[in-house]
Every structure is written in structure tokens, then in C-alpha cells.
Amino acid sequence: MVPLLLVLLLALILFGAGFALKALWWIAVIVLVVWLVGFIARPKGGSGRWYRW
Asked: Do the beta carbons of residue 43 and residue 50 sit within 8 Å?
């Protein structure tokens, strides 16, 4: 019974980590696209930075 519970716990942890890593990849891709759009569409005058920080 205990080995079965350990295997199920391990599968649950690995599934959760895999889902979190996939979500982080999607977030990274979205941030990259937003950065590229801001870099291409930055204003011509001023400091040239489109972000405030």
C-alpha cells in the first residue's frame, strides 16, 4: 500500500511540475512577443524607451 501511495505521489508531483514548466514557457513566449512589439513600435523621439522602468 505504501509503495503505491509513493508512486502516485511522485506522479502527481511530476505532473504538477510539468504543467508549471509548460505554463512558464508560455509566459516567457508572451513576454518575448510583447518586448519585440514594443521594441519595433517604440517612439522615434525622446529617449527611445517604450517602457517606464
From this structure: yes
How confident is the prediction along the chain (53 residues), in pLDDT tens digits per residue? 788 888 888 888 888 788 888 888 889 999 989 888 877 776 665 565 555 55
Burial track 27-46 (b if 16+ CB lie within 10 A, e otherwise): eeeeeeeeeeeeeeeeeeee
Q: In 3D, which of 12, 32, 35 has the Cα closest to residue 24?
A: 32
pTM: 0.55
Q: Which residue has the cell 508512486?
A: 7
Radius of gyration of the chain from its Cα atoms, rounded to whole angstroms: 21
State the Cα–Cα distance between residues 42 and 48, nearest whole angstrom: 6
